[in-house]
Amino acid sequence: MSLAPDLTEIAARARSDLRMGVPVVLSGRGGAALIMAAETLEAQRLADLRALGGTPVLAITARRATTLKARAYDDDLARVILPPDVSLGWILSVADPADDLKSPMKGPLTSERGGAVDLHRLALSLVKSSRLLPAALVLPLTEGVEFARRHGLTLLDTAAAPQLELTSPLHPVVSARLPLAVSEAGRLHIFRPEDGGEEHYAIEIGQPDRAVPVLARLHSACFTGDLMGSLKCDCGPQLRGALAQMGAEGAGVLLYLNQEGRGIGLANKMRAYSLQDQGFDTVEANHRLGFEDDERDFRIGARILSLMGFSSVRLLTNNPAKIAMMEQNGIKVIERVPLKLGENTHNHHYLATKAAKSGHML
Ligand SMILES: Nc1nc2c(ncn2[C@@H]2O[C@H](COP(=O)(O)OP(=O)(O)OP(=O)(O)O)[C@@H](O)[C@H]2O)c(=O)[nH]1
Ligand SMILES: [Zn+2]
After folding, report:
1. CA angle at residue 302 from 299 to 307, to 5 degrees?
2. Are residues 12 and 148 in the same domain?
3. 312-316 and 214-220 as β-strands: parallel, antiparallel, unpaired?
4. CATH number of the domain encompassing residue 337
5. Residues of the binding site for GTP
6. Same-domain check for residues 202 and 326
7. Which pLDDT value is given to residue 211?
């Protein structure tokens, strides 16, 4: 055992740096690069980056590139070449679709073609998992180790692990009795990832028999719906409805997964809401921001169920992707239990879009 952080831990440090606007050095088989998140970039750091010379690019996802009509030569991402007089405002307007309709012409944007893109791809996964806008400045470096040491920057060297797994293993921390309105026999369990990231919770109702399928719900955090009573989605009524059903049956498990906004974070979800006010639906808004429809990692839910000793569930959901992910990750879905609650005039279109575009069962 070493006192030094392992790669997953260094990746977690890198995410904190990117959120603060501090650059990170990536190194791998394809060379080395200095990266910065577009969202947290400051004018002085952009000037410092320019002073280093070389040719930085702005890595964006193919989703964002489609909206911007930039060529994505690298399948899932595009490397947009910075104009010689690049400004902070230009970078932010490529990264953030907020003003796309007001000032549509950012280009024409020219994309880089050929060469290795592993580090660009890693940069985008890091900014995405930092819950920032999916856009990163990437400047190739001739040498990474000494550069990182000289500037005191985090160095993430993936040469030994090109397929770096950014989802960290989870461990139970504590559980305690929690009497609830739906059942006095409630218990709250806390699970913490090894990399110090967001904790996830499980509410166990009663004492479900591990040998039979348990009534289960994988609920993704929705600050607006769960706590504020937002009418834009159905999360609050679904959360309370699922707990009520478990209380009525006397047993169940509800996972409260901190994957706000289908995994894009609350700030990005609010960006998506602004785009929805400009006329885009929930899926289009995610795409314009540069995200996939759903960025959640449902392996987390499957792992928590396994850690709690459950191997088969009666899953409360209308989402076929959740069922597929459970099955792929070792949890048998014996039955789908529909959960249709909370439709209103504000979320009618949102629910219809989920049915039409994400295959939700009505
Ligand atoms: N990005 C984005 N996320 C949203 C939007 N509306 C709600 N959400 C998030 O979507 C998630 C809702 O997840 P779930 O309740 O698991 O819903 P689901 O995937 O439709 O599946 P079931 O409810 O099980 O059928 C929460 O994390 C919400 O914060 C939106 O317009 N955009
Ligand atoms: Zn919601």
Report:
1. 120
2. yes
3. parallel
4. 3.40.50.10990
5. 217-221, 238, 260-262, 282, 317, 322
6. yes
7. 96
